Amino acid sequence: MGLTAYKKNDRIHAKGTPVKTVEVVLSGSVTLIDGTMKMTLGQGNILGAVETPGSNYIFDYIASDDCKIGAYPYRELEDIEKVIRVNPRIAPILATAMVRAADESYKTYEAALANAKDEYVKLKKQIDDYPGLSASLGESVQEFPELKHLEGPRDSAYLVHWMVVFLKSVREHDDYLNKYVYTQGPDMILGFVMGAARFMKYVVQENQRLRNYVKEIHELSMNFQTVYMKLEQKMREIHAVDEISADSDETPDLSNALNVILSFGEIPATESMEFKNLIETYGSYSDRGEMSDVMRKLRREITDAFFRIYSKVFLNSLETTSVPPAVKMFLMFGFVDPQIAGQENTDILFQIVKNHKPDAGHVVYTVPEWLEMIYRGEVMPSKNEFDLDYPAHLREQKQNGEITEEQEKELLVDPVNKVKFETENMFKIGDRMTFGRITSFIPIFDSCNVMKALDTAYLATGLVHEKLNAVRSLDYSIFYREQYYSNEDLGITRLTIDKEVLPYMIMMPNMGSRVALWQEIEGKKRDTRARFLLPMFTVEDPIKSFISACGEFRWEMCKTEQGIHWNDLSDPSLTAEYADYIQFYRKNRLLNAEQKEKLKKTLQKVGNNLRRAFVSDYLLYMTAECNGSPVMNKASRAILFSYVPFGAEIRAKIGTNPQYAEFMKKHDADCAAKMRPIEMTIRKLETRGEEIPAELLDQKRYLSM
Fold first, then answer.
1. Cα–Cα distance between 698 and 703 in angstroms, integer?
2. Domain boundaries in the chain?
3. Which parts of the chain have pLDDT scores under 50?
4. From CA 269, how far away is CA 267, in angstroms rounded?
5. In this predicted model, what pLDDT tens digit does every residue of 484-528 receive, in sequence order?
6. Could you say which architecture CATH assigns to the domain 2-220?
7. DSSP string, 622-650
8. Secondary structure letter of residue 143 according to DSSP
9. If you ran DSSP here, which 8-state letter would residue 686 be given?
């Protein structure tokens, strides 16, 4: 027997490679994956029992966690018998595990059968509704002979009822079998193991049959579905309304959307005609995503015109409460034309804008909501691409002789100019940044950029809060800023407290792949809110995108707080220690040769960029280390845990791991030291019968997190 150890997520066998061995899972577990089918086999199971020796693997075999596998040659089915006979001590364990796995595998068949039946019922209902739908629209009923003899999925001829009942019974009486049956020798055990293995092979075979059935009815009904969907669309158009109203969910007629938008924005005739010609030309291309020079130039011209028009349309929208649906969709999504957007997408966009409500938590903002905050003077415009805030930008213009001192004073409080500054800088660059595919970026909503169903890709306000809270539950201190608190009436001269300052999350009107940090503070005020930019619709895993952006924030916020000393190790900080770790990793005694080589490759991958290297480690820390899976090296883990401690719940979960014990002890000591002056002050106030300030109670709660 060959013994092999695998780490979590290691691939043991790849689908399509030759079957040469049969293995016993000695510890841990292995997941078998084939399309939509997934089975996990734990300790005592025989890997390969559902495979055919001499053929190719029909599954990918992935280690679910760290595991050890004992391998034997597998040339014929009888080789499984040899595995049983050469392992008499663990043979009963093999029998128990295989029966349990076979019983569990039946659930995958039940799920596959239910899915196939659902697909059939859905199609059958459409077929039954089709004649009536056609008649109501005055359309002739077409014939689809390929669907005349459509039948529902049949039950398995192999997985008969007695087998299922027998397996459940064997599993329920496992203690009895171990005591009185499996002790009778390998011959008895072999029957149970081979029976379970054959049952699992039937499950695999039947699951594949059902997948083929679903694929077949999809292919057979392709022509019918095309006709049926067109009829449904025509029916929606007949019942279309002219504007958003509370009593109708139907999309209004938006065929004239671009004219409505340009007219609403009072765009000059020449500029209006130029933009319409650009959109018409763009819409005439069948492959609007191509990377030819012609298309690049066209996208660039549309982009430049779009943001100029956007400011004018937005500013006019502030002057009326009666904003047409097309204009609302333009401002929120960059929508200009239903043919370019696609009618199905247009319907979804309409529903989103119709049902949208501002975030009651004042964290998530659409672009028009954000620009309105700028216009009302509630927030200052964001920094531009040269890292200049609005006042600094005006000062630079004055110094360059572009404006006078008097104009600088006027523009400093001019809401219209603030909106234009925000649109031409943060919005224009941020829209492209969050889109992710810079070379093919275009700010108008185009179906060619829709790579995921809108309803599943939509980052609704509640979902943004959910993902942000998920990060905060791991990195609880991320948005807390250290401040000084004093209260002369209570005799409190100066205490250090931490206050949470949640960021602004600004939704860019695109389907993109990146959540990005735009700025960590406003101006030079360190207690102001950060600004994150998000795509309205995401094609990536939202939580990973959020974590990466928060890693950027951690890095940039530390640099801002440390100033010119951000990489000075004599003034210890997250950035200083991490910069030192990267700079001198070759001499670091905490790293072995393999870890140094791995770090070298990571640095090459991120172009030796310190921030990107840190974000890469932060992502590992927040997705793996938080679950007690030590995938980072000791040096990087020590830095992260010192400055980015996990919350109490996670610390309790991983606290038994000796790799975290030292860090945990230091963290507890630091919190205790910070807690002492807070508790002493609270006790003094209680003794005097004074009311405890909320700031002190909040700080006590924070230090207990």
1. 9
2. 2-220, 244-356, 364-546
3. 236-246
4. 6
5. 999 988 989 999 999 999 999 999 999 999 999 999 999 888 889
6. Sandwich (2.60)
7. HHTGGGT---S-HHHHHHHHHHSPPPHHH
8. P
9. H
